[in-house]
């Protein structure tokens, strides 16, 4: 497993959003910043460059000089707070970034003969804020740029990436989808609610809101809710899933996350069997001697 730090750039004026607090905008019930933080939980140190705010896990805060000085100034402020050889760099407005992409970047950056790796979008455009850099070359080039220009404020990222030997990692069309406009926000929110993803998005948002780290088998719970609604009565579905959760919590107190997950599965199996017995009774009728 690659040891790394991560820098999340969460500043900027968000001019195309009318100056809105972009990292705090919600997609699928979670802020954009929280969504990005959720895919890099393996980092030794997580540095967020931007205004302080509540986050779902501990982070180190930094601020670029001057405030609003652009991505290179922010990157320089962030890298000063890191100490690992590989630094993952992400913008805070990537609602669909996945752990798989993060792992691909880290693996490519680990190559001995490269100075990092960054994503390219489906059109072949480089995405320097979806990237993993080796810390020493990153610090070297930032220092050289600061010396050459007298500052880093307002300088484009291409001045940095053009001097680094970077591998390219092709990712899907959503990996580098960022939210620069209200149209982007609307598109992201609409995609979250698509049939194939809405349940997992909802479960993830609910766990985040409730502070639950347990992996939940949504298929098991969905089947249970369906059986309860069909075999007993429609209101039985939410009540049964609540009771399963309560039973699992009582059974797994003080145990490992793995044991807690098994407690959920066991409670769900028992409740599902009960719902099926109810359905069998309804199908066969009463007073016929069956049990």
Automatic annotation (TrEMBL):
MF terms in GO: GTP binding; metal ion binding; nucleotidyltransferase activity
CDD domains with a match to the protein in the record: MobA (cd02503)
GO terms (BP aspect): Mo-molybdopterin cofactor biosynthetic process
Domain of life: Bacteria
Keywords, in A-Z order: Cytoplasm, GTP-binding, Magnesium, Metal-binding, Molybdenum cofactor biosynthesis, Nucleotide-binding, Nucleotidyltransferase, Transferase
Pfam families on file: DUF6457, NTP_transf_3
Coiled coil location: none
Sequence ranges assigned to domain MobA-like NTP transferase in this UniProt record: 6-148
SUPFAM superfamilies listed in its UniProt record: Nucleotide-diphospho-sugar transferases
Domain DUF6457, chain residue ranges per copy: 195-282
PANTHER family: MOLYBDENUM COFACTOR GUANYLYLTRANSFERASE
Name by which UniProt lists this protein: Molybdenum cofactor guanylyltransferase
């Amino acid at each position: 497993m690659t040891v790394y730090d991560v820098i999340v750039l969460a500043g900027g004026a968000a001019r195309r959003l009318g100056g809105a607090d972009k990292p705090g905008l919600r997609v699928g019930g979670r802020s954009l910043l929280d969504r990005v933080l959720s895919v890099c939980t393996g980092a030794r140190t997580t540095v967020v460059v931007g205004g302080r705010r509540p986050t779902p896990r501990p982070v180190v805060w930094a601020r670029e000089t001057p405030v609003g000085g652009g991505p290179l100034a922010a990157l320089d402020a962030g890298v000063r707070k890191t100490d690992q050889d590989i630094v993952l760099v992400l913008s805070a407005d990537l609602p669909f970034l996945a752990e798989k992409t993060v792992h691909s970047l880290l693996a490519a950056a680990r190559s001995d003969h490269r100075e990092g790796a960054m994503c390219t979008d489906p059109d072949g455009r480089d995405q320097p804020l979806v990237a993993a850099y080796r810390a020493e070359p990153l610090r070297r080039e930032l220092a050289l740029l600061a010396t050459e220009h007298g500052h880093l404020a307002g300088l484009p990222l291409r001045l940095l990436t053009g001097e680094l030997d970077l591998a390219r990692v092709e990712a899907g069309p959503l990996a580098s989808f960022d939210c620069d406009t209200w149209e982007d926000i609307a598109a992201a929110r609409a995609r979250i609610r698509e049939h194939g993803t809405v349940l997992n998005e909802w479960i993830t948002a609910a766990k985040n809101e409730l502070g639950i780290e347990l992996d939940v088998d949504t298929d098991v719970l969905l089947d249970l809710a369906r059986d309860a609604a069909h075999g007993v009565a429609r209101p039985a579905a939410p009540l049964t899933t609540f009771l399963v959760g309560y039973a699992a919590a009582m059974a797994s107190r003080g145990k490992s996350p793995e044991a807690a997950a098994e407690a959920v599965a066991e409670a769900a199996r028992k409740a599902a069997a009960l719902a099926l017995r109810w359905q069998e009774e309804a199908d066969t009728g009463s007073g016929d001697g069956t049990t």
